[in-house]
Amino acid sequence: MLLGLVSLTAGAQVSSTLSPYSQFGLGVLAEQSQGFNHGMSGLAIAMRNGKIVNVQNPASYSAVDSLTMIFDVGVSGQITSFKEGTRKKNAKTANFDYAVAAFRLLPKVGFSFGVVPYSNIGYNYYSAAYNDVNLSATGSGASYYNDVFDGSGGFSQAFVGFGWEVLKGFSIGANVSYFWGKYNKSITIANSDTYVNTLYKTYSTSVKSYKLDFGVQYQHPVGKSDVLTVGATLGLGHSLGGDAKLVTTNYNSVNGTSISTSDSVPDAFKLPLSIGVGASLLHNNRLTVGVDYQLQRWASIDYPTQTSNITTEHKQGYQLVSDQLRDRHKVTLGADWVPNPMGRKYLGHVHYRIGASYATPYYNVNGVKGPRELTLSAGLGIPLVNSWNNRSTLNISAQWVNKSASNLITENSFRINIGLTFNERWFAKWKVD
Which of 215, 244, 252, 302 is the most exposed place for a label (fewest CB within 10 A)? Predict the structure, then answer.
């Protein structure tokens, strides 16, 4: 059981997530996708096209042509159903996802910048039950407890990046990001046995650091009508700094007094080493199919945890504890089909996309493996055509995301993503007759 979920106080809140699982680790990790690949469940490592901004592999920036300035912005909304046993609850959330841009900086060198999310934290639920260990022979004396869990925050990155085609078909790239964020998590514990006292625990942090990501891509024709692209990415793991703070307060409702204690864990947070590989095949300039594999090495990172039992390894208190996080593996499959990109019919230029991904959890829940994540996606890339612009695209996609594990809360989310890619000829030379 995940803390005995009874109710999510979602109401009409607007937040990036309301998942109870966002209380673990650095929160619910963002997909970091853009409009072009939301419909393919985030397929990206070997995706290369001069009309997109592919943040997940900076080597792709070198594909942007010399006349193009690309702006890409996206928003999303979702409905999530939470289920534990026979109890169910629904919640609605919405979010501004990303804003990125790219253009040709030098011959064979593309440049990009923007803001993308890294993770999101947002939850509000309570656990309530009777404890009958104190029942008397007459059936009286049962105690009642009510624990309230609340959290908000998240982490983001503002980046600049470049992609350089070093040799024909072979490109390298890098993103340099300013990484920042914070969270506030609280637990309120009330028990009818000691109803005069209420215990409050508040966990908080604020982080300001950097993030470095590198990528390579190699593209080569295969036969007369196919083009194969392979890619790889590397994200450096390092300390983020930031102190993990815990304030514990006991409040006495009879005399109105409270006693607070503070604890802190210095240099408490780290980013994992991340590795990704991928391949895609473009057939007849119409159909693209691809696969990605990503690994994040979270298991080697200790996480700030309050320990209640004195052991040979950990003394009682708030400290860095091992085995709270797990290595995360993710596999993504996707496809993009354009019926007739060179034809005159409008529908022939529409992109039709599908995708699926499977990811293992990067955290434990009460000492057991967290929920695995399955995503199915479909989407459209709709060209925007008018008298002055025929290169921009409206990207619309739908995603179904399922998180589940034995004896834990099951989440089913239906998400709508909307992205608008402005592809402008800013650097074209105009002639006046």
Answer: 252
Q: Are β-strands 257-265 and 244-252 bridged in parallel, bridged antiparallel, or unpaired?
A: antiparallel
Distance, C-alpha 122 to centroid of its chain: 13
Buried b / exposed e along 259-292 (16+ C-beta atoms within 10 A): eeeeeebeebbbbbbbebebebbbeeeeebbbbb
Interacting residues of 152 by C-beta distance below 8 A, sequence separation 6+: 15, 121, 122, 183, 184
Using pLDDT thresholds of 50, 70 and 90, give the confidence band for residue 67.
confident
Q: Contact, 280 vs 290, CB < 8 A?
A: yes
Distance CA 170, CA 368 (A): 43
Q: Which of 109-118, 168-177, 394-403, 422-431 has the lowest mean pLDDT?
A: 422-431
Neighbours of 363 (CB within 10 A): 19
Half-sphere exposure of 179 (CA within 13 A, CB side): 22
Task: Give which of 378, 348, 341 is closest to 51, Cα–Cα.
Answer: 341
In degrees and rounded to multiples of 5, residue 349 shows phi and psi of: -100, 0
Task: Tell me the pLDDT tens digit for each residue of 318-341.
Answer: 999 999 999 999 999 999 999 998
Distance CA 177, CA 158 (A): 5
For residue 267, what are the CA distances in angstroms to 124, 261, 264? Answer: 27, 20, 10
Neighbours of 141 (CB within 10 A): 12
Which residues on adjacent β-strands are paired with residue 92? 79
In residues, how long is the chain? 433
pTM above 0.70, yes or no: yes
